[in-house]
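Quarterly update from the structural biology core.
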Amino acid sequence: MQIGQTRHPLEVFFAPRSVAVIGASERADSVGRTLMWNLVSNPFGGTVFPINDKRPNVLGIKSWPSVRAVTEKIDLAVVATPAPTVPGVIRECATSGVRGAIIVSAGFRESGAQGLRLESEILEIARAARMRIVGPNCLGIMCPLTGLNATFAGAMARKGDVAFLSQSGALQTAILDWSLQEHFGFSAFVSLGSLLDVGWGDVIDYLDHDGRTKSILIYMESVGDARAFLSAAREVTLRKPIIVLKGGRSAQAAAAAASHTGALAGSDEVFTAAFRRTGVLRVDSIADLFNMADTLAKQPRPRGRRLSILTNAGGPAVLATDALVAAGAEPAPGNPVDLLGSADAETYGKAVEAAGADKDADGILTILSPQNQTEPTLTAERLKQYAHRFPGKPVLASWMGGAEVAAGRRILSDADIPTFQYPDTAARMFSYMWKYTYNLRALYETPALTEEATFGHEEAAEILRAARADRRTLLTELESKRILATYGIPTVETRAATSAEEAVRAAESLGYPVAIKLHSRTVAHKSEVGGVQLDLRSPREVQSAFESIRGRLAELGRTADFEGVTVQPMIRERGYELIVGSSVDPQFGPVLLFGTGGLLVEVLKDRSLALPPLNTTLARRMMEQTKIHAALAGDHGDAKVNLAELEKLLVRFSQLVVEQRTIAEIEINPLLASPGRLIALDARIVLHGKEIADDHLPEAAIRPYPTQYAGTVRLRGGSVVKVRPIRPEDEPRMVQFHRTLSEDSVFYRYAGTLKLDARVAHDRLARICFIDYDREMALIAERTPPGGSAPEIVAVARLTRLAGTPDAEFALLVSDPIQGQGLGSAMLRRLFEVGRDWGVERILAEILPGNVPMRRVCKDLGFTFEGETGAIKDLR
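Predicted structure, tokenized:
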């Protein structure tokens, strides 16, 4: 534990020293009685205080009329009283110093407006007292490893290394019953209910620091605090698998908005995109949830998608192949391999050895169907030696049948080879493993370096401000294209005309043929009112088109909606019509869309979603999720599109979306992608109404690049360096930075020696550069050396939140040639600014006694020292 660090606030829910049961009862079958019995019959090393003002004791234990009356300190309260009484109960707990409460009571938001008001009151009380709340409307919490059972379930879970979190208490009780029968154990068994306060992100953070938890399983119905969940999940899934079963997959999406993109708001596809972005593995059934936990605990993740299938029967191999391909993986070349029904143990062994040596196979599945000459038990004994023989290549098995193969199945499972009754299940597990690898790989891959933000963002903001001031929510096509242009997104030249004569002049200037479109600040879809005329080749046709559009609006009684037309050249070059868009999801905020565009966008439905902001790696992943990507890459023999430029366009588009928060929907359809260029042919932007105040506009669920911390620092010698937050693209320059460090600088930074090749390893630097700006902040200082063409990193300063506490920890490293010029002090002051913005109360550090320069800097900046190495800066 770092110097001065307090206990994680959620520890009170998993290892309390004392628990009060408010609503404790002896009434048979009551929740209050079950809670009491579970707590006292499963010793957890603490004291239980029944709270009941009508009885002198409960289950033979002295009861107390109120929490306030208890003479000892209470860590945790479990509340089982009617909903209207709960705010008063929580207020009493808060004033009595109780640190956490589990509210199992129902009757809150699920019951309507009055329940929501009760929740708001509870949350206000708890936050004022820095008290944490689990629930309401939850089963409670079990921690089998400590013996705590603060639930009203009918039994205690077995001990294990898997944590299971759920919003549904009923589902948990069913899984608990199943787990007892299957001898499956848990490190934590947590019901979160309606996520009033403690959410997924909080518990994931806590379990990350629990060395006994090896994987985290989640049944989720809603995400709650999306930013907290995504932040915690991305951090933790690099160390522990997070596997999610999301309920509500078939629920209808939110009411369709005015564009194709807007119709996706609230859809289940957004959850899939969010999980993919953070490395979370999504599965489709309860069985898959536990099968994957077992499989990932026993076998390594595959490096690729190709599975070697070894079988003694054709039919099962066909089923396995079908399941494999349907789930997104594929058989290795030359597979499946039929060993024939006469295959004995030795035949299987040689086949597995060959598959293990095959460079084109990323995993091995052995299928055994019991036949006359089959040896299920002997074959299992022969194969168990291969459980961990092939690095990065998982070994799975399907021993089909019942009693005849049961012994072999146990032998394989005990040897860490996941074994399934049916081969299609095994194939699906391999596909999940590959998806998990694919998702995690995006978290490590260094994106291409892109140009820094030099676009006219303020110009775009001014257009949007003017429209909102005019109480408009729909921008004209001309305004929409101007905004795209300010972000470096090419658009077809478009001119406005308020008369037929003006339209003709514009057409002749641009050159025929041209397209004429309705210019209106109120009509959402121009084509639906006859507002689009294409391929016009003469002044007469342009005049006729102008009058036709005006006349059609008049026929519809919408003369006031006609404000003229726009004129733009027809683009005749061969290419692909794409759609790029964004709309606001009610849980995740802005969501990006990419796919096949044009008139058939809703018919083809070839699209992928992603959360902004993007970098080039994430943009490429987004494109790879679509069918059109193969055509864009030239896989069908056509000239390929410049995918690198398309990646950069998507990055800039995502930047637009996160910076211009007044935009509710934005759509480029079509974006023409040809071998020679990318160009937006049509664009549409819808704004949030004035009923949403500027400070309540939706934010991106993943914090965008924090430009507010960029600036310059003047050194003592007069030279100036640039300071800015780190980016994933900085990894190559971080390698060069580490080459400038002396052995002393390395020793004092890392409290020991750390060789250069270890410091610059890709996996390490990728995690240092690709950070979550809500969780930590890394600032780099850079300057261009004399005669150099590119800036070099000369210092790195990092501030990391300490999970569950109001504290943060800093680290600082300055290149030796620039030490002693005041850069370290300047960067620490910048970190103080970040800490205050975060609401950090104290900044901590461990500084070795021999690091005299760093200790001097900290002393000058107001740090106090504690013990031999501790340094504390109070920001309050």
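Residues 222 and 587 are 8 Å apart (CA to CA).
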